[in-house]
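General statements about sequence and structure are easier to judge against a single worked case. When preparing material for the folding task, we compiled for one chain both its residues and its backbone structure tokens. The amino acid sequence and the backbone structure tokens for this protein are reproduced below:
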Amino acid sequence: MNVDLSAFGTARSPLSAEVPVIYIVHGFASDPASMTKLEARLTALLPSATIHRFGHHWPQSVVRSGAELADAAFNGADESRPLFFVGHSMGGLVSRVANVILTDPTGFAARVPRLSSHGYQDDVNQIKKYALEYKPKRKVNGIVTLATPNSGAMLQGQVSLYLALLQAIVAKVSSFRHPSVQDLTTDRLFRLLQHFSSSTPVLSISGSKMNRFTIGAGQILRTSGQLGLNLTLPHDLVVEDISVDLDRSILPNEITHHGSSPYIHLRAYENCTDVWHSSIHDNSVVAAYIADFASRC
């Protein structure tokens, strides 16, 4: 590890004395089993932690999954222990939603009747069942997002050419018309999150594996320019660094723009090798960053 995380405070030691409650949240088209290796790595580093691999129905909206995660934390996390979320890919967005709910349940409850105006009309009644207006605020000590598309995974102007083409396919194939896909390919989620602010520390980690089209990058970018797309290439074959980094967010966000959250974004390498989107949650260096972060927040 060679990244300075002192912005989050002074690291406590030993790590074996840390007692956080950690919810690991999987991403798109995935399930809790995919997070088994990350759980094992964190358990080895933080043996006194309580770690939950949180499962959500990935086709549903990020907002509904975030409300479910918040409800699980309200009901299952010991308030005397530090609370952390670690989200891979879309799971990081789920964690951001859960964070704003936990830290401002009354404020979120006040916006629930207006979710329809953001395109979440199918989620209103489900989220109302959680009676957030009666929940006390719950501190979230930190969030770690792993290769999370914090500005959207498939927004034109951000993604590589093959994902831009995939976006066109998604619009035509009914099996891809999941609410979660809408959250990844439109700005509705990010416009909703603009109504909140957060002081929760956030560590954002993106992959480092360069796109396999790098050698032909000039031609790809020229072609995409002719199509009206202002593209750069992903650093982990799926999500671009520019989308992962909240400081470079297209729209203002609740963390670095409206909030007062300590925030660091970094790219992960392991033993001079690259880290892929699909393997970032299995990476020992990434697990060490997470443990170090937990010992500071």
Notes: The domain at 6-151+192-211+235-294 is CATH 3.40.50.1820 (Rossmann fold). Confidence is low (pLDDT under 50) at residues 155-163, 211-224. Strands lie at 21-25, 50-54, 83-88, 142-146, 202-206, 263-267, 269-270, 273-274. The CA atoms of residues 230 and 282 lie 32 Å apart.
